[in-house]
Structure formats: C-alpha cells, structure tokens
Amino acid sequence: MKIQIKKSIKPVDYNKAMSFIDKRLKDIRENKHKELIWLLEHKNVYTAGTSSTKDEIIDKKINIVKTNRGGKITFHGPGQIIFYFIINLNKRKKDIRWFLNCIERSIINTLKSYKINTYSDKKNIGIWTNHNNKEKKIASIGIKVSKWYAYHGYALNVNVDKEKFKKIIPCGIKNKEIVNLSDIKKKKFINLKDNLIKNFILNLKN
User: Which of 37, 153, 184, 202 is least enclosed, having the fewest CB within 10 Å?
Assistant: First the structure.
C-alpha cells in the first residue's frame, strides 16, 4: 500500500496543520487520496488532548489549543520532530495496541541505530530513556482512531527548548523530566527523519 511522504522545512502553525490533517482524513476515507506520513516542526504551541485537565497547567497565562487526539497536555516547538500520519487500519489490523507497538518500535529501533537505548512504558505512554541516572521522556505519542483510521502521531525531542515544559505537567506525569537527543549525544543525527519513516513503514508490514 502506497503512503505519501510529506516533509515541511519551515515550522508549521498547529491549527493550519490540523486543518490539513482533517481535510486529508476525509479524502482518504473517500478514496480520493493515499495514506499520509508528514514530518514537520511546529511553531511554539501548547496542546491539550482529550484526557487533559486544568491541573496540568502550571503557568495559567499560557494559551492552550484543545485537540481531539488522545493524551494530555504537551508542548511543541522548533527542535522537535513531529511525525504525523493518517493510516487506514481497515487494510491492516484492527488492533490499536498493535498499532501503538508499531509506533513505539519504530522510534526505539531508529534511536538504537544511533546507539541510544530507549523503551516504552505501558503505564506512561511515550518513549523513555535513562539519562544521568534518571528516567526521562524523549518522545510523546498521541493518536486518535476513528472508524479504524488512525491519525495524529508523535513528537521526538531533538533540541527543543525544555524550559517551555516547565509551564505544564507534560503528558500529566509529575516528577519526570524531558530530555533531548542532543543532551544524550553531541552529534548530528544524519538521516534521522528518513530512518524514522523507514522503520515506521517496516513495522506496519509486520
């Protein structure tokens, strides 16, 4: 099954991205378009998933964009790879846990190729790593499944401004820090985006 790959160079406004995703989802359901993988960065934005609460907002002055994805409150901004997708699970497996595993494995396997060990946690969805003897989050995952079409995606921290996360309780998890790839290894992560795409598609085939 062919999947369109889209990469944006300049940071994309969150609301404009969601408008594009909603329109493309409608087109895919009507067989007017291929499934989609879209990699981008967002301009600074705080977003709240369907299970978020006001208690997760520390700085009450920040603006929050409500979304229909699963999960709680998080921050997106430059220095973070946003990996969006619209995938038709009707053509694959009608199994949300299997699909989440595909996402998790694609991130874990990609980072392993750069000698960075990460893992998933069923209690706290996302991808985690041990850094300076602390468990820290390197990627957050938030998806929605409607009529077995899965969309939204994940955010991988490369060199995002971690100070922004101090204004919220990221993903509703207290006393856990955010970490960047650049904190773990001072190197250029060559072909990182392409490898994330490749591993995601490979896992969809398993």
Answer: 202
Residue 36 pairs in a beta bridge with 4, 86
pTM for this model (two decimals): 0.95
Q: Amino acid letter at 49?
A: G
Sole residue written with tokens 């985006």: 193
- State pLDDT tens for residues 114-169: 999 999 998 888 999 999 999 999 999 999 999 999 999 999 999 999 999 999 98
User: Could you give the CA distance from residue 139 to residue 141 in angstroms, rounded to a whole number?
Assistant: 7
- Whether 171 sits among the annotated catalytic residues: the reply is yes
CB–CB of 69/150 below 8 Å? no
Contact 1, 35 (CB under 8 A): yes
Report the b/e string of 45-62 with b at 16+ CB within 10 A. Answer: bbbbbeebeeebbeeeee
